[in-house]
């Protein structure tokens, strides 16, 4: 069984390698291939992945190649973790919306749309090669942001894809800690859209303990999601990303002074690459944990196992709505705890309140328009998507952001 | 047949009187009674209404009373056009949201919620008396803002109510002018929520001429709705109230310098009362047209006729959604062109795009929470409604606005 | 020797009574008279002051009266600590500027101007009575905000007045604590305008230890002034009030959520009045320290001693510039450490840098225009003063603030 | 007599050539040399200048060279009109301040500081070569923005320099038009700092007609300066650049939607270069008037004549304050109408009111700190200058702007 990692030259990949190594037998991995246009990065990260997997005792073959067709050839699972334009594009995504007083963020708002617009065409081209060269019935697992929109674009084109996010697994670990239980004992109801989710139940031996958990650990939860308690006094715990909505202006103020996340990550990555030069290194460096994407490897490996073995375990994944949230179109892509067996079916109950429902509906409408803009192009579609976004919503802003998005992103926009 | 006008001491009532007078025979009006706690206002406006109706040749009895039970006794239609707290409460509604950088407006945002919170309990008390004293099967026609929320509260309590707005009739007259046709020839598809509507078709002899109309009169339409063309380049024409959404920040800037609408109306009303002192006056003064509510009387009289005769004519009314917009709950109250016959059923097609759908969903969620806050009270419910509103949406703003709404509105909030 | 306290019905007065009591002999006080239009407050606070002074062993007569002429009759010192319009006017001053996105504060910006406009005419009327009835050569000591502008208005009319602020004494106590020395050992160079001052030297036995103090206690100083260290990395320590300038927008954000200072003080005052009802109480309650004005009594009593004995001690006072800051007009009123002997002459060196100089010049220009607006009245003068204020500075804001200032303050503006 | 134009490859130079050509005899010009590092631009603009001057009948030699030393060798006047970093640096200057909610402009605020920081070191290096190679007593005439700060830096280093701006000549032409008189009949009192000036008198045959002019043409003046009348109801007419102060937030809103001035100019310049390719062209194209800098050539040529002939004519120039505005340091550089004879002495009266005085003092303090930051470098000095600027003034903004200024401008900052 072969796994291909597209964007395998990323500093993230050592995290993945730990997961592949520890689970190689359970997953039946015969081969891991890293694919990346950056051959120089592969020359460093490839051997490191090999050493890490060897450290775990895995005998799986590890390969690396800038050739996409060869890389995905015969793969059973293709993991997408690419970043079109690199950190410098991200830094621009985080900066230009601020010129209009809007939050600069790489997965939502105008910055998220910019990323979607340059990423979706690339992902769709890759998926075409996967369709042609990968093993029959191969899965595409997307970890490339904005995961919801990328997954929707893949599904719209008929690919066998599922989107993955590490927010739910982070909550599971944190809640398990607060409850003094092993993570495996804790099953979440996680509902919404990618980066717009709420934990609506925390099941321990089948019983929902979220109300008690909130009673005893209200402040710890507030710290975790970086939002005041009032925001989840209705009993539904928003993800950390909701602060871009519930705390938008404060976040804009913060970004005016603080270095952007992209600048920080660029610094961390430079340090990581220094560490990676050490050709005796055979484990992911501690520093990687500050890179973001905590537990990503665990989430990814566990999901692959379920996809390959159809074991029916619960994962938080991105998939078609198909009536689960009745106020969204069937074709919308939602993120929800789901049993991954022969089919993938939501295990959570769809219990969002009116406040969540309104916001989810508005963002889902934006995502629909955003995917259309990414696939079909055109300034007018960009404007419509931005005007639909609850963090934009105004003509002047949509117009100014459209102009800036196209001006700063032109190099990666095929139609501009 | 008797009509009762609750809030009949308003300066608006002379407009209504023109409509009643001109249609008294067609409607079969035997009696009009104005009800208002302000007996001094009734003593002026009552005789004026009488003179206006006489001028039209009507022989219907005209009465006035501060006694609600007596006023609605035996009425077939009860028209609600009251303003709890008067213009001074409105002026406060328009000011306090600005302290938080939010638009101050009497029908939407925090100002609109303030109005809903103080109005709905009063309207529900009135409706109880209507249920008890009016004729069996009497209609309540609500023109009191926010019409959508007030109508929903009435329907939730089982009243036979319909909400009325003058936005659609205004568009009909304006479009008829642009098309060079009589208003009666023009039938609109008007869809959305009260003060959050779009004209989605303009039918002339059954054919939708909106695309041509927009092609030829794009600038005139932009002027009419006070929004740039880009906002309706998708072919759906938003009402003038959408500028509080699509032009929110510009509106806030404008309000910082300009006198508020409430201050202007207070000035106009003072002038109107001066004119009303003339006991030979027998027509509504020209000045009334600057008071707002253009064509209100025509819309109201025409709607009453359809309610009483079940003639199946098309009116833009507020009623239960019941599946018309599939992304809204059945219980939501929408505003839509509808045939008013034995039943009231939408005549428009539900063709809003994703951009409109997202916004309508978000505002409908706010309205649901807002009605709950009005009926059940409590700071927490006010906060939840505000946090759900797309023009608020942030914790800090919702908290600051909640505190201010309660502080400035306390006198009219039974639970505060 | 008689002292009159105008505004003696304030909750502050028990603080003053402690100072008078402890220093009655040294000051040679024969009589203290509290003057206040609120006779009911005097009936509570008068006996309390008497009990406090008795507790200190003072035999001075304590009187109270709503009659200004009788109260100041024969007084050697008249202390002004009044608040025209009470806390409710203050609460309005703190709210209306927020509608324009400007800080709401009672001593600076549009709120401070509102207070100046209603206070200066009242103070000038009082000063006329002092001129007529007080002892020849009597001093007016002004503690009424905005102290700089009020003092300037008094001096412009030829009164023998000096302005007092408690910022400098607060710094002296705090710095003494950090240095491990008695307050009396610490002499400050305090320079600027009222509520726009910097500590430019901290003298210990004649030597300036500010550089060392900043080196060792940088964070403690930052906490004290509620500003980041970068703001005083040039070695000049701004007062706490500078955060309304250097942290303006953050302060506006804070005020949007937090209850205003006036609302807090109103709550504290209500509690204080409850405590004051106890007719065995013979000391100021601990709670008073949360009322603001810390060390005010010590500063005031010490200053009176110097005024009466011409002992040449150093106090931070408000007086004419007369060339001390060469970039300000001679008639400007500055706040500076000064020796109070037969004459009052600055003891500090005028060592502000260009950054401070620019801000001080701009605010002094505002104060000149603001005093003119207070004395001569007129919407146009209010607008000019606001346009000159560095926290306003824009036409739209000045226009919107002028309209609101006059609308909310009309009752206390003789010319409006 | 030789004139050197540093930055002679600019599209502006054809405007200058018209002036040189028309006045070659009067000025006694023997030679004009254009100096520019861009040899390709010189190859186009040099021959064009030659053709324009020939068209005027001038026989002066026209040369061009990228070699600075050779270019200024023996020159009697060296005109500086360079743009370090070109339009792309300007476009960045106009964009980055918007990320912090501050106006993006190339001569004031954070954008103006960015330009000063990269320009002053280059200008000072050029001036050193002028000192060494130009004729003894040669004048440096600076038209490079920010003119006030550049001129100050030149004077601080002992150069014989004067700064020139085209604002005053623009007013003179406009006022002459309104008055129905020839421009030469109109003499202005123009007072302030570069791009922060007011017209305080308009002399016609020695008499000040500004009050009448404002009475009759108030709206025309408001249109000219793009500011509401209230801003100059005190009788002093601010320059167009004051709208960045008096209309700051509105300007920020405008910039969020509109293309930046730099983007527009870049477009115009591209068109101009197309026109300049025509080697029969012998006059400046009409299009140049939309490039900015109207009347620049007339102002520059007239000033040179006065500098060379000491004719005592009045020009608006940048020079040392030396007590003219008593609230500014002697070393400050002001912009004022002055007689240019054997000495250059202000002809205007220093009649600014308190409102102008406060703003001028604050900006002068910023300029002092800004020149120091340009000459000596260092993040800390940049921060201090920004914190001193009235359009910044806040710690968070100064910190965020400092970081961005250095990040976007690093290539041209020798110390960063």
From TrEMBL, chains A, B, C, D:
Pfam families, sorted: Glyco_hydro_4 (PF02056), Glyco_hydro_4C (PF11975)
Domain of life: Bacteria
Keyword Metal-binding found: yes
Keyword entries, A-Z: Cobalt, Glycosidase, Hydrolase, Iron, Manganese, Metal-binding, NAD, Nickel
Segments forming domain Glycosyl hydrolase family 4 C-terminal: 191-392
Entry binding sites for substrate: 90, 145
Name of the molecule in the record: 6-phospho-beta-glucosidase
Organism of provenance: Glycomyces harbinensis
């Amino acid at each position: 069984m072969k796994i291909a990692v597209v964007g395998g030259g990323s500093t993230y990949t050592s995290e993945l390698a730990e997961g592949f190594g520890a689970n190689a037998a359970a997953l039946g991995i015969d081969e891991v291939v890293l694919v990346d246009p950056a051959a120089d990065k592969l020359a460093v990260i490839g051997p490191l992945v090999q050493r890490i997997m060897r450290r775990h005792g895995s005998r799986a073959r590890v390969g690396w190649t800038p050739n996409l067709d060869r890389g995905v050839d015969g793969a059973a699972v293709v993991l997408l973790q690419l970043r079109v334009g690199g950190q410098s594009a991200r830094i621009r995504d985080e900066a230009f919306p601020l010129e209009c007083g809007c939050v600069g963020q790489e997965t939502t708002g105008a910055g998220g749309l910019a990323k979607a617009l340059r990423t979706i065409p690339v992902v769709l081209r890759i998926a075409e090669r996967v369709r042609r060269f990968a093993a029959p019935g191969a899965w595409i697992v997307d970890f490339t942001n904005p995961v919801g929109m990328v997954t929707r674009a893949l599904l719209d084109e008929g690919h066998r894809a599922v989107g993955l996010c590490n927010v739910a697994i982070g909550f599971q670990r944190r809640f398990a800690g607060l409850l003094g239980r092993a993570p495996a004992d804790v099953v979440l109801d996680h509902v919404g859209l990618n980066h717009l989710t709420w934990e609506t139940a925390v099941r321990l031996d089948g019983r929902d303990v979220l109300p008690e958990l909130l009673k005893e650990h209200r402040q710890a939860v507030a710290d975790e999601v970086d939002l005041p308690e009032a925001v989840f006094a209705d009993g539904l715990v928003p993800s950390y990303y909701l602060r871009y909505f519930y705390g938008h202006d404060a976040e804009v103020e913060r970004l005016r002074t603080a270095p952007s996340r992209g600048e920080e990550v660029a610094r961390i990555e430079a340090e990581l690459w220094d560490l990676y030069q050490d050709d005796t290194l055979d484990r992911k460096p501690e520093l990687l944990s500050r890179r973001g994407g905590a537990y990503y490897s665990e989430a990814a490996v566990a999901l692959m196992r379920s996809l390959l073995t159809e074991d029916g375990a619960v994962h938080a994944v991105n998939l078609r709505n198909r009536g689960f949230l009745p106020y969204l179109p069937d074709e919308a892509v939602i993120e929800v705890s789901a049993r991954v067996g022969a089919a993938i079916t939501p295990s959570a109950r769809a219990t969002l309140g009116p406040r969540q429902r309104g916001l989810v509906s508005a963002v889902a409408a934006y995502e629909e328009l955003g995917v259309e803009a990414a696939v079909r192009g055109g300034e007018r579609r960009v404007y419509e998507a931005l005007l639909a976004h609850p963090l934009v919503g105004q003509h002047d802003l949509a117009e100014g952001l459209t102009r800036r998005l196209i001006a700063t992103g032109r190099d990666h926009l095929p139609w501009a």
